[in-house]
Write a structure and sequence with these properties.
42% strand; disordered N terminus; mainly beta; 239 residues
Length: 239
């Protein structure tokens, strides 16, 4: 009986405005769990799945006339709401993923993949959940974090930059203190936390003109200043 039912369902068509839907019981339990939507000319548009058998669609593969999906939509926590969208090339290579990481109804996470679709090259997140991405993490081909950019003022403009060594130790942090889109303060570290030098661009011309140096205990030991902004030191202060 189950085998007969499955064959009937596979070939039983529901027509809607010239299109058709093929309904499938893929595991032969007597319940429909796949819906294949086709266009009037027979092209596969999308396939809906109920993978956990609760009667709710929890995955949708979008084909748009291609042989393989160009988009896959998922309900990761099976609450009836789709919360992740995976985007593919026409050759079915993963390009990027968008998701609602906190299951709140807001997309706040975007993973961008490199050639081949196996490695994340950029991770973008919306930390304050205002609908705008504000943290951008960049990764090397072998998966190590190389730099991070932040929009800390949430105005759509990057105002903080961090760079990392091959072992992901923090090397430097740069700041845009006057919100002109350019860094004007640079902090340099050893072992991620030990501050060694700070450079300042006090007149915002894109060139540092004040340097502060710190000893191994974190105490300020020297300040170099180019007071007239001619590119030459004219004041050196030592503690």
């Amino acid at each position: 009986m189950k085998c007969f039912l499955a064959v009937f369902l596979i070939f039983g068509l529901a027509s809607f405005a010239g299109a058709e839907v093929i309904q499938v019981d893929s595991n032969f339990d007597g319940n429909l769990d796949q819906w294949h939507h086709k266009s009037e000319d027979g092209q596969l548009l999308k396939v809906e799945y109920d993978k956990n058998g609760d009667g709710k669609v929890d995955q949708i593969d979008i084909f748009e006339g291609n042989e393989k999906p160009v988009r896959v939509e998922l309900d990761r926590n099976l609450d009836g709401t789709l919360d992740q969208v995976q985007h593919y090339s026409k050759d079915f290579i993963l390009e990027y993923i968008e998701k609602d990481s906190k299951y709140s109804g807001l997309v706040d996470w975007r993973e961008v993949y490199g050639p081949g679709g196996n490695t994340v090259t950029r991770l973008e997140t919306d930390e304050d959940r205002d609908g705008k991405l504000d943290v951008f993490q960049y990764f090397s081909a072998d998966g190590h974090m190389e730099r991070v950019e932040y929009d800390t003022s949430h105005d759509g403009q990057i105002d903080r930059w961090e760079t990392f060594a091959a072992d992901e130790a923090l090397l430097s942090t740069s700041f845009d203190t006057n919100e002109d889109g350019n860094p004007d303060q640079w902090q340099y570290f050893i072992n991620s936390t030990q501050l060694k030098k700070v450079a300042h661009d006090t007149n915002f011309d894109g060139k540092p003109n004040r340097w502060e140096y710190f000893d191994d205990s974190g105490e300020l030991e020297r300040v170099d200043i180019d007071s007239n902004h001619d590119g030459k030191l004219d004041i050196v202060k030592r503690r």
